[in-house]
Design a protein that fits this description.
heterodimer, A: about 270 residues, alpha/beta, two-stranded antiparallel sheet, 13 strands, about 25% helix, globular, B: about 200 residues, alpha+beta, eight-stranded mixed beta sheet, 8 strands, about 35% strand
Chain lengths: ~270, ~200
Amino acid sequence: MTGSGAAPRIAVLQLPGLNCEDESARLLGVHGARAEIFRWTRSPDELAAFDGFLVPGGFSYQDRVRAGAVAAKDPLLRVLLEAAAAGKPILGICNGCQVLVEAGLVPGLEPGAVEVALAGNRADGRTGYHSRWVALQVDPRCRSPFVEGLTGTFPVPMAHAEGRFTHEDPAFFARLAAEGHVALTYAPLGGRTTAAAGNPNGALLDTAGLTNRRGNVLAMMPHPERAAQLRQVPEDLPHAWGRARLAAAGDFATLEDPGPGAFLLRRLVEMC
Amino acid sequence: MNDVASRTQTTLLTAHKGVDLHAASALLVMRDRLEGGDRLENLFRCEVHTFWGAPAGWDAARLLDTGRFFNPNKHHFGIFRGPSSDDWSDSTGPGAALAAGWPGAVEWTDLDALAADAAGLYGALLGGAVPAGCTPFDVVGFAFGQDGPVLSGVLWRLVLRAGAEEAAELGTALAVARHRKQGLLINPHMESWRLAARG
């Protein structure tokens, strides 16, 4: 929390074509933040005054040129680079993840440099847009406060066409992982009994989320805000969270309990 | 993609009859936000599909019949054919030069007046005549790891207020996304690319 003990102010960026800002702001509010949807037409100086930032999912600028590429050039992203350097927490989800990659916030070896890519999905002989529930796990080498304390696997939905973390030299991702930049990886779920089988897009090292060196920026392709309450979890999901959801059927109070994705949103608030 | 010399390469270029919105957005962003972008006079875009080793008896009509690659109501097209000059294989590092003469001779186009003019058709699909004092700089990118007989990518033409020598350096800096402030069109971590100052 902020030094004053006041609720932290978190900006949820609204870029043209993003479409998850409303629920993201509401859920951050559930976890104690004063979340505000920040329209891209506002001054970058106003954005700099916030304590934390969320870049939500959607299709910024209709994915023109390449997902996230146009938004990455927006002056607001300069503010996020400065905020990252100052240690403020930043969470990018799905298209927000693509924007942070294209803007050079992650892995951020040289902040601002485009160091990896999110290429078109290519897995299991399938290309193009894909949507399903996946399981995630924390790479134990990652020291980011975003994922500190997360154990086991947790399910969240993914929904994207360009989510394949890649690099022309695959060894580069091994280096990133060794240095703790790979925060989240895909994990087995149900009949998909290996991490590789659980990988929905062919990402190198089954990578689902990257952090910067300091760990205060997390860019992830799956959607934690779509799994932030128990009621959002499918009853038939082959995971402990699915069984918990089934057990809560009809119990409307319990269904409002935090879901598997709530941890990351809460942690964004706590890191401010 | 070995054994290049023994195969023919058929290339389909398609261009919007109206405004290509990818190019329109990219033009504005590059002008306003990239170093050197104020030298960008215009920007045009074609989709590229390269077909390898067309079998005997194959003709371009079959390509159109698929209806998969473009909408003839919305796009101009050119089908070019020539000896293989480039395998477009995954290459990293600085982009190689776009082969002279690529994409070959015209096989079919909806722009009938240019059916016998490969250079004219190629230029027409990329915005037509270049203003005096400008140099066209072309960049084509293909995502790594495509397999199968069809490779798909994007061809960009940057019309730069610069001479040919300067255009190569400026065009590369504007096209290849190395930094938030430098380059937009190609992400070198997922695409191989070829480039050339032409015209």
